[in-house]
Amino acid sequence: MRETKQKTAILEFLRSKRQHHSAIQIYDAVREKIPNISLGTVYRNLGALIESGEIISVETNDKCVFYDGFIADHAHFVCQGCKGIFDFDMPTGMTEEMKKSGFKVSSEHLVCYGLCSECAKNTAQ
Amino acid sequence: MRETKQKTAILEFLRSKRQHHSAIQIYDAVREKIPNISLGTVYRNLGALIESGEIISVETNDKCVFYDGFIADHAHFVCQGCKGIFDFDMPTGMTEEMKKSGFKVSSEHLVCYGLCSECAKNTAQ
DNA sequence: GATATAATGATAATAGTAATCATTACTGAT
DNA sequence: ATCAGTAATGATTACTATTATCATTATATC
Predict the structure, then answer these.
(1) Under an 8 A CB cutoff, do A88 and B108 touch?
(2) Residue B86 and which of A6, A11, B106, B118 are 20 to 30 A apart at CA?
(3) In chain B, which residue's Cα lies nearest the Cα of A92?
């Protein structure tokens, strides 16, 4: 995998923001640095970066995919009110049962849905 | 929500098989009973059944969506070898941290990736 | 059974992502 | 530093899964 300014810009953007971004959001952000970057290049690099383990992706219920440059094991919470994505520690001891069955777990994706503290406060009457 | 033979057939199929099926697989299976059912109807009913909580959906890494008529809380394991989907108990005590933060958790989706016992055995040299 | 209307089948439309291909630009050897 | 080989790019087209549209059909209520 060669070093290109497009790939570097995408990775730097994802690492600079502790948030989750869709492919188009990344495209828009990177275009400020590389105005003529192609959306295809963004998708190609996101795929390659996932493949190499430099970023991860989060798929939410409504078929949206978000990319995350923070790769330490963590769970995601999707707020159905404000649509925000929040990080949480991954619960431990989760894969015990699977390992017992002889399964080799290479990654685990935990996404929870509900209301964040703010939205929960506002909907309570 | 009205009772239709299309909806009944979809739900019965999903409940009869303890496996996970994509929309097209469901379409093909139900077409044996209702040959002229439309794929749009399948999608419409799958959406409605998810909405009403009668089935659940599992999104895997490679953008495939599978539907599951077994709705008791459980985690999914996707084998990257044979592409099979396996069920596991959902680990307990998982949402403690989220609840402590004032978050209201309504559902949790845990998908793990790796190799099932069979595929792990075959790839070990 | 007649009526109201939700759901259907057929089709077209959309959105997100992947493939194509000529051109550009990294990288390693000279 | 220059060059050659080739991986990655931008522009575009193609694809696939899903959703919307709409006239027609079938379900539930009276």
Answers:
(1) no
(2) B106
(3) B94
